[in-house]
Amino acid sequence: MANSNLSAKFGLEKxxxxxxxxxxxxxxxxxxxxxxDIPLAYxxxxxxxxxxxxxxxxxxxxxxxxxTTVVSTFTSYYIHLWSSYFPDKHLSSxxxxxxxxxxQYPSFQNLRDYLSWRQVDCHINNLYNTAFWALVQKGGMLPxxxxxxxxxxxxxxxxxxxxxRFGVNYNDELEQFKKGSVMYxxxxxxxxxxxxxxxxxxxxxxxxxxxxxxxxxxxRKAEIMLQFTDLIxxxxxxxxxxxxxxx
Length: 247
Description:
Elements: H1 6-10, H2 18-34, E1 40-44, E2 47-51, H3 63-85, H4 108-138, H5 143-150, H6 155-166, H7 175-179, E3 181-186, H8 209-221, E4 223-227, H9 235-238
Antiparallel strand pairs: 1-2, 1-3, 3-4
Helix pairs in contact: 2-3, 4-5, 4-6
């Protein structure tokens, strides 16, 4: 889900507007609170990815219903919460809107690859934007000249520009800017999966009606956590075995 028109209209800070990112996170948290079928979400810039468990049966797995519900819920909360983060910037027509699409990944590893790609993309874009806006805002360059300066530059080149010309150590930038936002349901002191989809060995193993009801309520009771952490390495996933059962 993304919207790329807000920055220019409302004059958001470059390269990162902390309030805008916090508003995105607040709207995403509201989506997770309203839709317990989402155990994990990842956000960067003006985009958010909401991950559903493979066993999810929400709306009979109808793509259009899931998509419109998530997008409309996110957009409505984004507009509702706007004044809390931008009391000095009043909304006007055209109002903020977001688009989206549904993608089905065939395996847990494919999902991890997708999230890893998004996080790498977050770092690459943020490093470029940090260097670009330093050249423009602190170096007095025209945007076209800054683009020419950075064309073909490596990550080391951009780090050198930031440090040598402007005294900026990129490693000191906020993790939120470099890694994006990771939001997930946390089941403290639990080692079982979010949804136990292992094959039943016998009819006696099938959960009772009460157990099923407790299972439905469980995601709503879980604490929604926000971290700016590494999704690429195994540490995040190993510490949270309930996420998708590590399939």
